[in-house]
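New to this. Please check both lines:
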Amino acid sequence: MAQLAEAVAELYHEILPGMTENDYAEHGAASLCHGFDDGPMYVLEVDRLREVTWEEWGDQDYEQELAPPRRMREVTEDQALRLWSWLAEGQIDRVRSLPWE
């Protein structure tokens, strides 16, 4: 959980020593994946603009999309951490049930 919190904080606060604005623009998002060898696979991306994207795939190679990507905007740091925590714990139905756009 501490590593997830650190990753979210880096996106939301841009606090890494030596990183420039261009570095942040180029590396402005991070994803967490949860899946199985034979599928399915779930991806939750958080970006520095506080947008979260949820993807569901039937395979590890991103070839079989199970549903179109869904998004949430203006996600707080705490919400982003909670979403990543749920995904890391395999609580797929909990993440899926949220009010995605």
In short: Residues 2-13 form the longest helix (12 residues).
